[in-house]
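Quick one:
INPUT:
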């Protein structure tokens, strides 16, 4: 997929359409939870003791064929950055 390096987009801080520079970033996943988060504590509590561990004992799902990308748009006037929704592509090229 080809995408321009600069686009005109709406800036919520300036409250108008301005020139934005586009940068890519790898999509952040929800799996990077804190080791002591409520969900991880729940999982650890469930996995103690004997017996199978239900959904936690199943093998992990295989890798997806593509990575998810996020686009970061930086306003040319106020330098405020915003994220455009993530999407999957095999090839991504800035023109």
């Amino acid at each position: 997929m080809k995408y321009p390096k600069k686009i005109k987009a709406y800036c919520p801080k300036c409250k108008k359409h301005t020139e934005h520079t586009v940068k890519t970033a790898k999509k952040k996943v929800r799996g990077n939870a804190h080791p002591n988060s409520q969900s991880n504590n729940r999982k650890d509590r469930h996995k103690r003791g004997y017996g199978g561990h239900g959904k936690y004992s199943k093998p992990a799902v295989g890798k997806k064929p593509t990575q998810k990308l996020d686009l970061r748009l930086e306003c040319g006037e106020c330098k405020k950055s915003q994220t455009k929704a993530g999407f999957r592509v095999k090839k991504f090229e800035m023109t």
